[in-house]
Amino acid sequence: MVNSDKPVFKMNQKRLVLTKLPLMVSAVVMVIFIVFNLCIKNPILLSSNVQNYPSTKRFSLLIGILTRADKHEHRHFLRLIYGIQSSPLAQIDIKFVFCNLTKQEQRVLLALEILQFNDIIILNCSENMNEGKTYTYFSSLPNILSHPYDYVMKADDDVYFRLLPLASSLQPLPRSDLYYGFVIPCQSMNPFVSYMSGMGFILSWDLVEWIANSDIPRNDSYGPEDKMVGKWLNVGKKAKNRVSNKPAMYDYPGMNGRCSHELIPHTIAVHRLKRWDQWLDVIRYFNVTKELTTSKLYNGLNIDSIFNLKL
Ligand SMILES: *[C@@H]1O[C@H](CO)[C@@H](O)[C@H](O)[C@H]1NC(C)=O
Ligand SMILES: *[C@@H]1O[C@H](CO)[C@@H](O)[C@H](O)[C@H]1NC(C)=O
Ligand SMILES: *[C@@H]1O[C@H](CO)[C@@H](O)[C@H](O)[C@H]1NC(C)=O
Ligand SMILES: *[C@@H]1O[C@H](CO)[C@@H](O)[C@H](O)[C@H]1NC(C)=O
Q1: Among all ligands shown, which has an atom nearest to the Cα of 165?
Q2: Are residues 43 and 69 in the same domain?
Q3: Which of 97, 174, 254, 289 is deepest in the core (most CB within 10 A)?
């Protein structure tokens, strides 16, 4: 009995180990899998230099396109232009900015747009270009936004921005005391001489707050809007970090002397798109519609038909 029991016991012990081993291995694998997944979904666990950003986006940018309430159709076109773009680097919000509404028709149509798109900012001012709208825009933001952004842009509505190269160019730059754009005069390559063109310039959030709180812009808000911003920053000894992104930002060929040049592959912004043929040229040059596939649903429309189009 004793002799026969022993081998049986040994056999059982071996079986025990043999049956539990796969279980233990799979438990370990599972733990590793869970930890790995947590790290992937939450990069903060992997890298400590992305604190405060729960998503993988590294910074945020508000692009405020200053336009007029009546330009419904143009706004819809710009929604298409920007709706199909994004950047993995940045949370980019695009909003259309105007002064207070003056017509009943505007109130109804804008209410519809807001319900559908939620991309409208209506400021407390009467519509103007060089009488303080840009001041009202920047100075209102800290009070009306529900959260700050790293950067805020003021843009014109006749500009095509490419969000991917824009975000890539901002990524390595300082997050504070920054003034970024296309420096005027056209031939200037010095971002301190003298101010960034109104086509689209960016201020870091600390400068937006400064504009909201300082007497310097408040006392001096009337005048060519882009020039005034440069003047405030100079008088206030602000924006130690300045970047003028030439030749990536420019005016459409032939539209504005030395501020214009031919379309180039590494473009960030093309300004002064006043006519449809100019927009079409830009859309085709940058292969904006390249994702289009052929389908029975849209007879004859395909990439080739877009490129064979005669202007
Ligand atoms: C709008 O601006 C006017 C002055 O231009 C001011 O009297 C009024 O209080 C402002 N309204 C709001 C809601 O801030
Ligand atoms: C529109 O803006 C002006 C400020 O320029 C303000 O005086 C006026 O009260 C505003 N109107 C409305 C309806 O908010
Ligand atoms: C702005 O104007 C106010 C009132 O006129 C004046 O008291 C203040 O000194 C001015 N500030 C600047 C920086 O010009
Ligand atoms: C657009 O696509 C064409 C064909 O693939 C390519 O040769 C060209 O470089 C692209 N243009 C840009 C600006 O990426």
Answers
A1: 4
A2: no
A3: 97
Determine the distance separating the centroid of ligand 3 and the alpha carbon of 242, expressed in angstroms.
Answer: 27
Q: Are 149 and 60 in contact (CB under 8 A)?
A: yes
Dihedral Cα 122, 168, 246, 268, nearest 10 deg: -60
Which of 139, 219, 222 has the most ligand 3 atoms within 8 A of CB, as the residue to mutate? 219
pLDDT digits (tens, 9 = 90+) for 90-109: 999 999 999 999 999 999 99
The pLDDT tens digits of the residues spanning 37-88 come to: 544 444 433 333 334 445 678 999 999 999 999 999 999 999 999 999 999 9
Domain shared by 145 and 30, yes or no? no
User: Is the CB of 216 inside a 6 Å radius of any atom of ligand 3?
Assistant: yes
In 114-268, where do the E strands start and end?
120-122, 151-155, 160-161, 178-181, 183-184, 195-196, 200-204, 241-244, 249-251
Q: Are residues 154 and 244 in the same domain?
A: yes
Domain total for the chain? 2
CA geometry: angle 117, 120, 126, nearest 5 deg: 155
Domain check: are 229 and 268 in the same one?
A: yes
Q: In angstroms, how far apart are the furthest CA atoms of the chain?
A: 108
The pair of structure tokens assigned to 305 is 């038909």
301 assigned to some structural domain: no
Ligand 4 center from residue 65 Cα (angstroms):
28
From CA 109, how far away is CA 71, in angstroms rounded?
A: 11
Shared domain check, 63 and 44: no
Task: Give a yes or no: residue 36 inside a domain.
Answer: yes
As beta bridge partners, residue 180 has: 202, 243
The string of pLDDT tens digits covering residues 192-251 is: 999 999 999 999 999 999 999 999 999 999 999 999 999 999 999 999 999 999 999 999
Ligand nearest to the CA of 101: 2
